[in-house]
Amino acid sequence: MKTTPFNYIGKPHLRIDGVAKVTGDAQYTDDIHLPGTLVGKMLRSPHAHALIRNIDVSKALALPGVKAIVLGKDAPILFGILPRAEDENALAIDKVRYVGEPVAGVAAFDERTALEALKLIEVEYELLPAILDPHEALTREDVKIHHFSEVANIERRATLEFGNVDEGFAAADYIREDTFYKGAITHAPIETHVALANYRDGKMTLWTTTQVPHYVHKALSRVLEMPMDRIRVIKPTLGGGFGGKGEPFSFEFVACLLSRKCGRPVKIVHTREEVFMTHRGRHPMHMKLRTGVKKDGTITALEFHNLLDGGSYGSYGLVTLYYSGQLLTLPYILPAYRFDGVRVFTNKPACGALRGHGGVGPRFAFEVHLDRIAADLGLDPLEIRQKNSLKANTMTLNDLRITSCGFEECLEKAGKAIGWEEKRGKLPRGRGVGLAGGGYVSGANNAIYFNPMPHSSVNISVDRGGGVTVFCGASDIGQGSDTMLALVAGEILGISPALIRVISADTDTTPVDLGSYSSRVTFMAGNACRTAALAVREKIGSVVAAQLGVPKESVVIADGIVSGQGYAGMSFTFAQAVVLAESQGMALYASGGYTPPKLGGKYRGAGVGPSPAYSFGAHAAEVQVDEETGIVTVLRLVAAHDLGRTLNPLAAEGQVEGAVANGLGEVLMESHTNTGSGQHSCPSLLEYKIPTMLDLPDIEPILVESFDPEGPFGAKECGEGSLGPSIPAVVNAIYDAVGIWLHDAPITPEAVLAALKKERMR
Amino acid sequence: MKTTPFNYIGKPHLRIDGVAKVTGDAQYTDDIHLPGTLVGKMLRSPHAHALIRNIDVSKALALPGVKAIVLGKDAPILFGILPRAEDENALAIDKVRYVGEPVAGVAAFDERTALEALKLIEVEYELLPAILDPHEALTREDVKIHHFSEVANIERRATLEFGNVDEGFAAADYIREDTFYKGAITHAPIETHVALANYRDGKMTLWTTTQVPHYVHKALSRVLEMPMDRIRVIKPTLGGGFGGKGEPFSFEFVACLLSRKCGRPVKIVHTREEVFMTHRGRHPMHMKLRTGVKKDGTITALEFHNLLDGGSYGSYGLVTLYYSGQLLTLPYILPAYRFDGVRVFTNKPACGALRGHGGVGPRFAFEVHLDRIAADLGLDPLEIRQKNSLKANTMTLNDLRITSCGFEECLEKAGKAIGWEEKRGKLPRGRGVGLAGGGYVSGANNAIYFNPMPHSSVNISVDRGGGVTVFCGASDIGQGSDTMLALVAGEILGISPALIRVISADTDTTPVDLGSYSSRVTFMAGNACRTAALAVREKIGSVVAAQLGVPKESVVIADGIVSGQGYAGMSFTFAQAVVLAESQGMALYASGGYTPPKLGGKYRGAGVGPSPAYSFGAHAAEVQVDEETGIVTVLRLVAAHDLGRTLNPLAAEGQVEGAVANGLGEVLMESHTNTGSGQHSCPSLLEYKIPTMLDLPDIEPILVESFDPEGPFGAKECGEGSLGPSIPAVVNAIYDAVGIWLHDAPITPEAVLAALKKERMR
Question: Which candidate from A198, A585, A587 shows the least CB-CB separation from B25?
Fold first, then answer.
């Protein structure tokens, strides 16, 4: 890491909300109490696919203590996070499409009454055949989960082609084809989904566990048929998102509808089982890869087929589909690439965005596939990656504008740290090392709805006592975005980030930031904050220069002191400088915004590739495989991640460690599945296994800095791209340990044993 | 009232916080709950004057459940609302000066434990003679309440002289001298004083029932010895101030000190008795007036002596003293004026600011005095006032710059409404009418600490959904300042005020407004808000004009529609226009500030007179006097008030009605007195009588508009100046009813009977 002239950037900072969280001061949504609040509960479908013939709420309404019941017909307008995939109702109207789909909402004085009322609602269902397998969904024309699917139950097919793929394969010395399956996982945030709605005086206020207050704001306006300026959405402290709180949900509308109906606040708290039903987790992907290479490992062409099991609704699925095709090419140079992807509907909870969204399945598949090619050709998996590595300041064939790229450094550092040279192929049987690469977006170039507005805006207001407050719509979901904003503002204003206040994620008080998804916040809100802070600094610089009679360029702010550099003894405290500025006639205030570059480009015309900047990474794992039990133990996981610039090493390392933990759970433990009737197989944290601290190896983050020219201080994303490579690194290490290739994740002990048995029989 | 081109100004608007208040959504300070909050209580002196020889807290600290005890020595820095009168400690150190003065603070798990701990604190007092009478305070050199008093117990003497007073008296045809006494009243807000302090991570947050968050912010910084940027002061919804929450108080510091000491949130809720002890109510005034007039009633000279009983500390007293001298001259033309005022310390709770601050006592005295002169000369009290009335666009001899003045119109309308011509001197014995005039400031030209910064700043942020949020430090204390801000912003932005959000009185999120005192908020925050809203409108106008291709001057906003006036069919909704503006690269935002004019002037050089604008008023009362019981019943009270422009008639009439109710309580019921030992005579709302709705007559507000050139839309103050004239109007009506003059307020039935008896004996 380069030494920098920074005061705070690059040094470890505790999160600014840390003390509030450990003392209990932090207010999560369920901590907010309004007098007279009713308990909201939702009745959910027990069937995976059925028509609703009738709903009789008369007995439930007659139950003392029941204040309101709402049904789908009370809010018939469709919603969905993507404008091109608005296919959901707040409550099912004519049909249910998965087990757990909400069909009615009840508000009652207490939870017991609400639950009792749910039992008294009589729903007459007519059962339909349930499609649970995506391959079946591809062809069953007789069963339409959504009427608008033109072919069977296909939501969308996406095909991309760049370069001459056929020529590429013709030029190859070797071609290999593999199929992979990456199963579903769910987010499992510790805080379940909670909404508190309060309709008063023609205005709605919704406190909700959301990663995207602005999109919830827009969706509420649409579905509730109320102008946005009568709706306020607030995200209180949030206990984990991971993508699972990244779109508007049924319960948010239902809480609002109930509150509007009975004129009292209504709170809905999801049980853990309901979180599993709400889902929107990782899409199961059935993938086929075909790659042509030269003898030396240089890739000549790649073809990728992907079948995504979308579950019952659109959710983020079109983005998943697109990302799965587009991001596969990171971090390698491909001269020719063809993608054919299909997302189908099945009668399961909808899949959506989850950390590493779109990239994780294809990453797993391609990185294992690449190792197999290397093995076939007798090449070193590290070398084949180095040979094909993307470079900075290039354009990929699929139109991704690569500004900074630290992939080669990541490969080198991860290899060195794991002891690649000494260990690969040289460890005793049962132990092995593996390696994989990856890359991810730093936010999306396009908002979810097309518009020319900034993707993030920041207002900074300065109290005459010197207190600095940053206002931004960015949604801190535990990843530390508030702390990032404080750090950026603090650096520019020469004030300890611990003293900066951040007000975020409240549509009434903060300007729009599009939300916490696609790893956009540090890059985009960071840049907006930088711009706003520079504007504040400019105002202070002007008045101080005038007051001191020194050139404006000489004015510097550091450690709370504003001085004329080179002019001895001339200085003000920051607070004194603020007083000078405020004495111009109004309080000190400035704004900044960030809009991704619009440089044209071939794809979609709305930007260059999906993102303004890409992170890169290489992970190396060392594993122990127990051939008796099939149990795989990850001993070490080295994660080298190119995050552009390390703003806060404590936060960045935490993000990488968290992402790796997520990846290790995903490769070895987690599996979100349904039974043959569409019921959840394991809808509790007892049954759905996520790794605890005791299950995790030493995770060794290595922060690689490529200094992105457009990132705030050079920073890029950090918390999502650092998940993907962990999975194939472990799978590749298993091969190094015991010589088996595993193409289906998660890797169960049973699968390991079966593969070992098959290998022995060969 | 003129017809105006306004959409919202001048029409009745419900308060924007009204629904929250009636539903219980509104969060008062005591409604805020933090986990682990301790109960804070204060030990108070039982003595009016005593030295503290020793305080032993060992037994109290040993009580299980007691978490912290603080004493005066823990915060030895003096504070006080006025920088020239910082004479208080958070807790008494060496000496107590009134019954109820806090000497120790305790934080404990629950109230019972805290109260038990108070009993276990052993304070060794050495009693000193208590001075309870202000005349005694003037001369007792042997007993010094404060060591810094140079003469006896005088805090300050103020003398003013304008014109040639001796010549004025020499030119008079008639000279009259009277003495008056106006007793103390207290504020009696329904919400008692409450503070919740939370010291975390080196930062202090204080939620408190304050009218002046900014001054509390400054005082906390000083006394806690913490920089302002580590302190946040928030005023939640507030249940009435009336001046009684207008300065930093002991309990605010003590809550903070306790929280800092034990690292947990601490809440102090005053009992009603403690509110009486905290006091800061109306100064008792012993007044002597001497006036020279021509035969026709034209005033030639006025001399005014005022002895103010300040109680034990400075508080706002120097302002009270100054206002009592300066504001007496409103609303009359005085060719020569001399004021000699003294504020003394006594061993009673400090007096401070109360609605009509400084003006009420002198107003009572002068208006009755003027009626006596009229009676002596056989003049009509209405006519003598008309003859001497101030005019607009003049400068008074004591340097008050009168911009607008509707006093003559007030006199005329009040007289007409009460039936002056038909009733004065013509009603049956026992019934009579009386009349009085008045005037008041619209905010102070000087901040309480001298500085060149704006007295009020407003930031306006606009969400891309069209939602408008006004940020302002102004403290809504029930008077409706938040609604005023919404109305001003709504008028300029063409949006219903009911849809405007106001975030106020939070030092972290809102720019400084100096607070709710001296009737400054509508004038100053209103002007700041107007400026900010005009800047927002300007930005919208520019982008809309460019987009529509129409001249910028043609762009108008009304009812949520932005259009080119005269360009048919060319319009956007407000939200669409905001999107256009935000598409320029950052969220729509603007700021505005208000600084009073600095026009030089003879007095203090810091402005022209105390205020940028003055309200005027005339009240007329009709009373019934029961000569058997001495009970005076006010039958009607007509209050004509020149408020410049009526922004919101509902609010303005409410303010006038409330002020009159306050005045009627003050003239007939309320009396805040102490026993011979300095104990409160009636420290409960059972004993301290304030008028209920049933005690009040028909109050008839008449809003007179003089369109002040510098007020927001022409508005001036409304809620304080409309108190003063009620008192003398009633007293003068009693004379008309039964022929007695009463010089001491409140007017008790006993005093009426005594005067009647004296009158009969004459």
Answer: A198
Contact in structure between B304 and B363 (CB atoms under 8 Å): no
Please give the C-alpha separations between residue B294 and each of B297, B381, B478, in angstroms, as whole numbers.
5, 15, 45
B311 and B348 Cβ atoms separated by less than 8 Å:
yes
| Inter-helix orientation angle A360-377/A381-388, to 10° | 110
Strands B285-293 and B50-56: unpaired
Contact A200 B232 (CB under 8 A): no
Taking contacts as CB-CB distances below 8 angstroms, the residues of chain B near A504 are none
Q: How far apart are CA A400 and CA A329, in angstroms?
A: 9
- Note whether A22 contacts B: Cβ–Cβ < 8 A: no
Q: pTM for this structure?
A: 0.96
B503 near A CB under 8 A: yes
Selected residues 510-539 of chain B with any CB under 8 Å from a CB in chain A: 510-512, 528, 531
Residue window 186-215, chain B: list those with CB within 8 Å of chain A: 198, 200-203
Q: Homologous superfamily of B32-128+190-240+245-278 in CATH?
A: Aldehyde oxidase/xanthine dehydrogenase, a/b hammerhead (3.90.1170.50)
**Does a cis peptide bond (omega within 30 degrees of 0) precede residue A331?**
yes
CA distance A270 to chain B (A): 23
- Per residue in A254-270, pLDDT (tens digit) is 999 999 999 999 999 99
pLDDT tens, position by position, B73-117: 999 999 999 999 999 999 999 999 999 999 999 999 999 999 999
Domain ranges of chain B: 18-26+453-594, 32-128+190-240+245-278, 285-446+602-761
Between CA B548 and CA B113 the distance in angstroms is 70
Reported as a pLDDT band with limits 50, 70 and 90, residue A603 is: very low
Q: For B506, which DSSP code? A: B
- CB–CB of B464 and A200 under 8 A? no
Q: Any CB–CB contact under 8 A between B36 and chain A?
A: yes
Instruction: Work out the mean pLDDT of chain A and round it to a whole number.
Output: 96
How far is it, in rounded angstroms, from Cα B43 to Cα B91? Answer: 9
CB-based contact, A662 to chain B, within 8 Å: no
Residue B493 CA: distances (Å) to CA of B542, B572, B747: 14, 13, 50
Name the architecture of domain B18-26+453-594.
Answer: 2-Layer Sandwich (3.30)
Question: Domain A285-446+602-761: which CATH class?
Answer: alpha beta
Amino acid at position B714, single letter: G
- Residue B189 half-sphere exposure, CB side, CA atoms within 13 Å? 29
Asked if the domains B18-26+453-594 and B285-446+602-761 are classified in one and the same CATH topology, the answer is yes
Interface test with A, best of B222, B586, B591 (most A CBs within 10 A): B586
Nearest to A255 by CA among A84, A511, A30: A30
Question: Could you give the CA distance from residue B684 to residue B689 in angstroms, rounded to a whole number?
Answer: 9
Looking at residue A11, its pLDDT comes to 97
Tokens, residue B525: 């925050």
